[in-house]
Amino acid sequence: xxxxxxxxxxxxPLKIGFTTSFPVEIIFAAGHIPIDLNNIFITGNAQKFVxxxxxxxxxxxxxxxxxxxxxxALETDIDAVIGIVEGDCSNTHSLMETLEDEKxxxxxxxxxxxxxxxxxxxxxxxxxxxxxxxxxxxxxxxNMLDKIRxxxxxxxxxxxxxxxxxxxxxxxxxxxxxxxxxNPKKFEKRLDKFLSEAKSRKPIKTEFRLGFLxxxxxxxxxxxxxxxxxxxxxxxxxxxxxxxPYLEKxxxxxxxRYTYPYSVxxxxxxxxxxxxxxxxxAVLSYTQSFCHRQIDxxxxxxxxxxxxxxxxxxxxGKLDARTKLRIESFLDMLRY
Length: 336
Hints:
Layout (H helix, E strand, L loop, with lengths): L2 H5 L7 E4 L6 H5 L3 E4 H7 L2 H10 L8 H12 L4 E7 L5 H10 L3 E6 L6 H14 L4 H28 L4 H9 L8 H16 L8 E6 L8 H7 L2 E6 H6 L8 H7 L6 H15 L3 E7 L8 H7 L4 E6 L7 H15 L1
Parallel strand pairs: 1-2, 1-3, 3-4, 5-6, 5-7, 7-8
């Protein structure tokens, strides 16, 4: 996709899909609408989106999130897709090529593995140039979004300090902060209403305080099942990262502190602090089938001094009987 195609487009605002969190401030500052393809996938007809990709030839042993995003991009009114080609899934390269072959405009963005400041700053500047927006406008937008992010920090604190918000509610609000549902003002209005209601609740009483590590689950009823088993998730690791909780003044520093695109060791620094702060009893480490991040579990288990249960998701849908039994057995182990 060339700069000219963005700059001279007469169809405003454009709908810009993306494959995982990136400096979304740039898209809002340019007057366009960012759309997290993952959120459309999991909240829509997820199985249909997967089937679209498989009908097009995507193999069975490719992550369902990749197939789902491909299906969403084909079925949704998207003007372009920003693919995070370094710092996320290695399959994104091929996803971008297949989307381009389907006549969908694609834009690459990279988080370099070494967390090099100069390289990230260059990526951000190139994206600003592509969307013809000044850095000052991006920082102004960042300040606006940070006001909402401060409220999400409050939401997260109510979750683990006051026990008045469920793990599912925490998950949904934080994961949707990746694109603010395309409309920050409406998102903030809904958030204000939710916070007012949540503060007036009685605390949730459960036996166990759990952490959820890894990418958001493709399993739709996981949090509800945990509550049924008298356990609540009070730490959603990656979802919290999507909300940019550090509130750095500088946008480059903000996305350097964002742990998801970088090494598992960088993630661990954040996880270990939050485990202690939130007084967790145990953690669930979620992995997606056929994902390289399954290997991260080796180090997570080595350095986290808490009971850990690894859960693997494949296709979108509800928990299978085997996983339910494993969760029940894990919680029984914690009891005795």
